[in-house]
Design a protein that fits this description.
Chain A is built from 14 helices and twelve strands. With 357 residues, chain A is an alpha/beta fold. Chain C has helices at residues 2-27, 35-41, 47-56, 63-75, 89-124, 129-142, 146-160, 177-211, 214-221, 226-238, 240-264, 269-278, 282-310, 312-320; strands at 81-82, 87-88. In chain C, strands 1-2 form a two-stranded antiparallel sheet. The chains are: A alpha/beta (357), B mainly alpha (310), C mainly alpha (321). The interface between A and B is medium-sized, with 26 and 15 residues.
Amino acid sequence: MSNISQASSRDTGAPLLELTDVKTHFRTRRGLVRAVDGVSLTLERGKSLGVVGESGSGKTILSRSIMGLLPTKGTERHGSIRFQGQEIGNLGRKQMRHIWGREMAMIFQDPMTSLNPLMKIGRQITEPLEIHLGMDKDNAWATAERLLQDVRIPEGARRLHQYPHELSGGMRQRVMIAIAMACGPTLLFADEPTTALDVTVQAQILDLLNDQRKERNMSLILVTHDLGVVAGHTDEIAVMYGGKLVEKAPTRVLFADMKMPYTEALMQSIPKIDDPSHTRLLAIGGRPPDLVNPPNGCRFAPRCLYARDRCLTEEPPLRATDNPEHTYACWYPVGSAEYYQAKARLAETPVAVGGLD
Amino acid sequence: MSATAELISADILLATKPPRRRRKFPSLGVVFAFIWLISLTVCTLFAAYIPFIRDYDTQIKVNGKTGRYNLGPGWTAWMGTDASSHDVFARSIHGARITLMIGVLATIMGLVLGTILGVLAGYFGGKVDRVVSIIVDCLLALPALLLALLLVYRMDDLKSVYTWLGWLDRKWEITLTLGILATAPLARIVRAQTMGLREREFVLAARSLGAKGGRVILREILPNLVPAMVTVAITGLGILIAAEGALAFLGLGVERPVTWGKMIIDGRADLKRAWWATVFPATFLFLTVVSFNMLGDRLARRFDIREAAI
Amino acid sequence: MRYALQRFTQFLIVFFLVTFGVMVFMRIGLNKPGDPARTMLGGTVSQELIDSTTAKFHLDSNYFVQYWFWLKGMLTLDFGYSAPNNMAVTTYLKPRVLTTVFLGVYSIFFALVIAVPLAVYQAYKRDRSFDKLSSFATFFFISVPAVVLAPLLKYVFIDWLAWFPRLSSKIYPWDDLVGHFKNFFVPVLVLTIPLAAVWTRLLRADMVQTLQSDFITLASAKGVPPSRVLWGHALRNSVFSLVTSVGFQLGGLVGGALIVEAYFNMKGMGSLLVVAILSSDLFTVQAVSAILVACVVLVNLGVDLSYALIDPRIRHARALS
């Protein structure tokens, strides 16, 4: 809808995206699944945010909630989502359609299944151009060719007439990025954009995303389970666990001074180049929480090495460190006296650690 | 499962405990299908001993006289009487015995032939597969009902030429014909299933241990074909029963006892005057076909056999 | 191209085998000289007529020679001679073929017109009450044999509501357009309903699956309106079972036409065939089955080739082979 983008002109003082206590619940036969359970955050224009968590942490559902891409049946949405100063949390698919592709776009995980196999890629790129910007065919195809250039696909004119199966996985992901950027959205979601790709291609795609973000002054929300992916490519990181935001900080701050034991555990589960070879990676023991009957207290407590009685009964609020941009939800954060006590105890009983993997 | 649940399953349900297994009750349709088929079978098998089922030849007299359609549905004759004053209900039951018998025997025949062809084609591939494919294609190229007409009629003829075919009465002719008709689609499905099974680990393992073709087929492949075969057989039974009805309808049915299809076409001219003579046999036929379809559909979903789904 | 050629030869083989099989099957048992002609002519006829007929149609030579002559005749559209009617099969077949063609074409057309939008809408409104209700209905209608449906619809539309008069003999649209449609409405309905039900179920199942694919979500996320997502993206990806089934159902449709023609006293190929079989009208049986087999074979060939039209992946894979 043109009035959405124009009324909220792109230079208003409000942040691009502002979430307050967003909840997304699904009614299932087993009961209410609290997939996203009270998330608040803001994102400034042109910035990038990494949303990190294991599968089941609600990170994918959060991004889809913001876009409004969830099925309406059996879904309950609460809280406020303000986009460019306008409330969009209560909009239906009909109204969201004018925002999709034009203001917000999404890149999916698997480029193999996310492109229509029976449609020329040129057609798939020009479709939003024709719908949102009202371009005529020639104009749209010329734009598509330029877009392919932007995502560094050589021989764009020829590629436009090919079908997805004629392209490699990395190439297809580039096409997806081109589709997402076609109408110049202000907010781009990338949901595990590199998981399905070869390791060698992963870095290229992430760099491409980042370059394009800067060039076009877009905001980017990068959803991933891999802290390594977000490390060099986002301004801020939000860690999610069990549908809740458990820690959020600027990237450099988070890596230097994480507070949440869960973040620490995630960090320890990525291999590092300077580790000696054959270093055992620490897996996080246990399973992600049951989102129908989440544990009392801190949701991570049942799996937390440093958990105490209080963690099991009382839910920690999100609070800030000395740096107001760094918030976390933990009673005994990394670096506290209780943390060191627990760590010392664990060192004495190595069995407990061994039992984790 | 709803669309929501599927969407969540990607991400969330991974994280949740598997639901407690509740005993699922079969759906209303399946229950109905069972009740209908079982009571129909019982009635046909023990018709002679069940007091409310008249004999096949008993004519109902009104005021001491027989007459065309002399009774509508009512207490005396539940489903009225037909053109020759016979009880429509009793005739429907007596006809059902032949129909069911023909259906079951033809299905068994189709299963045996279809499985042999399908397993051979699917397991050995290559030239065997070519030949079987052509046979199956040929059988499917001629519209089924046409083929059936041709077969039944010519068998009648041949009987007079070749005396050793004397045992072939109408009942057996139709059974044989429908059995041949059922072969082609069954062979197709069995072939596809066998080709899938052939590449599965346990079959490969058996083969790598040196098991011969025959042994692998009997011990490894056939037992795994059973769910698909049962499913297709049940659905097929419904189709064959409808086909038997169609044959009888076209005048190539069993003469005595008459079956549903014949009763339907016999009532054609007097549909307006005596709807019951048509409607009730039609209902019998419909309910029976629906019941088999219902069961087959359920089984197909249970075993995830797409080819058998209707 | 090679693929198409290969399929074509396979279908040609099937056509020859089946027509040859039908010919042989109509003649086995007629072993004594003159038997085929006697059966064909029926009743008591003079020996001279039998002899002349036998000679004229080479009925005493072996099957392969007979088949050869028959095939040669076919190429010039000479389907032989119908003894019971004492005329050339071709002349007397022509009007009858049209009736059946009308029946078939109309019922396929209307079945598609009903099935496609219905299935698309069902898949779109999946698990809502409309979907559940209509899915139940399609299941119901799939299970209604033509034998049951024909009297039912005849009773409702012709006897009870009396919307349509008794079927008249004018069957051509160029004679009487309104009468033509009035004539065909109920018979076509008998054939269309089960067909539409089968296709709706097939298409719905595939649509539901397609609508869960990532590329559909992507299409929505691009801001493509739902109607265009359904018709432009999802439908084309879901039509394979439907297309396959068109080939499969054709045989069943002919069977249905047989019943409908018999029940409504229409003079079509089906009713003709029944009479021909019952009167051992050899050449008519051969002609009708050849026409039907050719239809089935050609449609299946078309189905096979249309996969490549729909799916570029198949096109490319075949181009390589």
